[in-house]
Amino acid sequence: MSNSSSILLALLVVVVAVVASSLSRKRAGKLPPGPRGLPLLGNALDMMKLRPWLVYNEWKQQYGDIVYFTAADRGCLLLSSHKTTHELMDKRGSNYADRPRAVMSGEIVGYHPKVSVPNYNVPRVRQMRKIIIEGQNAKRLNDSIIPVVEEKLQGLLISFLHKPDDFAHHIKKFIAGVIFEITYGHVLEDDDDKLWETYEQMSKDFSLSTSIGAFAVDSVPALKYLPRWLNLGWMQEADRMIALRDVHAQVPYDAVKEQVANGTARPSLMATLLERGQPTLEQEDIFKWVGSDFYSGGSDTTTAFFLSFVYMMSLHPEAMRKAQKEIKQVVGNRLPTLADKAQLMYVDAVVQEIFRLNPVVPIIPHATAEDDEYEGYFIPKGTTVIANVWAIAHDESVYPDPHTFKPERYLNQEENARTGTNPDPRKNMAFGYGRRICPGQHMAEPVTFLTVMTILSVFDIEATNPNAPKPDFSKAEKYTTELFSRPEPFTCRIVPSSKESEALIRALEV
Ligand code: HEM
């Protein structure tokens, strides 16, 4: 068959699939309002835009908190308020815990052994979530995780002192070091660590393959039937991702298995799992992919948060000074610990505001397992449900003056409770919803707080050019458009805040 007839045939497949799907879509009631979109394609092109959350925010203004649209053969429900996400994704959690069809990441690359890709009713998903959550229970957190974080934090402070301009690299390495050590007992020392390199590539591949809009085949699934010899860009990308898919999880798992067998394993989640006795083949597969999920779930998200923290401090010196003053008053001239947290209300407010103003995960996709009805609207089974986190975080009625960095908003808790404003973003959106809520939250919350207060206890973070205009956060300016959004590359000055602070850091070097 010639090139052009193959493409024609593929287009025919697309048209037939879309028409068949729209004819088969049950209309048991009125769908929520929403944009009409193009014939056949629906709003697929809007989903593929850079920062689709800004388009979704416009739809919220136009149609309200609950919007329905189609993207080729996919029906999508957009939820843009605390009320709708809570009532559907949290309260009706069992029906809203599936994931949308993942054509590129699941069906083509084959990432379905990871916890976040399959639907919730697959027993393996619940088993994996349980292992991940138990891996951060209070005992493991206190005895194994926080001590590792504290040790790696000391390394981070030393790196900031010596090579402050490389702060982004130091942050990335700090997180990777924590995750490798608690998951596999692997000590990350060198920048060219092979395991780190492999995991970084896998993590990039995974996040790209799951980004709504990154690949046309996700919006128009029938494209996956195009013949492989067309060698389109996404086909080549998929082949490259497949080559790394299994190997990244197998190598560190095999290493720990061998160490456990010969009694040389360092303490880690994987060693604990393997020391319980010979796992079945099915358990081995689960353990391997849990290891992979610790990295892909924890690395880019936490790095994005810390880069956002550094960026926000460089832009808001007055907030930074207030936080530093509070730390000085409570902690004095030593490094803080989590035991100080209860007295550091302003620092906690800074952390909350970083989570809110530029959410690490601006849109969160779930899917319905069954037909549903809400406020008179019909919501079909298999609908992609998108929590519009960015819009919720910038909702003026909940967070007054929403595009401004203002930690003070969280301080008057009584007034906030009375007016229903300024809820803690960590509790109702930053970590997701219902049965799919981030299973890493148990460690992410203390780790983000500990790191922010430790850095602020000894360093000043200053803008390279303090007079430059501030980004317009109502347009998500200067933040990347990926699944996990972070500041675009930026420069700043990181310097010890006093002679005593410098001495504290230097004392860690011996
Ligand atoms: C600042 C740090 C973090 C943020 C902002 C964050 C945020 C999120 C969000 C929004 C989700 C989607 C939840 C949903 O679908 O409703 C998620 C899922 C997930 N997170 Fe985190 N996360 C962070 C840290 C971590 C850490 C440290 C781990 C390590 C264990 C982790 C592991 C995961 C996993 C495995 C999932 C998929 C869960 C599933 O699909 O059932 N995350 N995270």
UniProtKB/TrEMBL annotation:
Residues 1-20 form the signal peptide. Heme binds at C438. PROSITE patterns: CYTOCHROME_P450. GO terms for molecular function: heme binding; iron ion binding; monooxygenase activity; oxidoreductase activity, acting on paired donors, with incorporation or reduction of molecular oxygen. InterPro entries: Cyt_P450, Cyt_P450_CS, Cyt_P450_E_grp-I, Cyt_P450_sf, Cytochrome_P450_fung. Its cofactor is heme. Pfam families: p450. Keywords: Heme, Iron, Metal-binding, Monooxygenase, Oxidoreductase, Signal. Pathway: Secondary metabolite biosynthesis. It comes from the Eukaryota. Belongs to the cytochrome P450 family. This is Cytochrome P450.
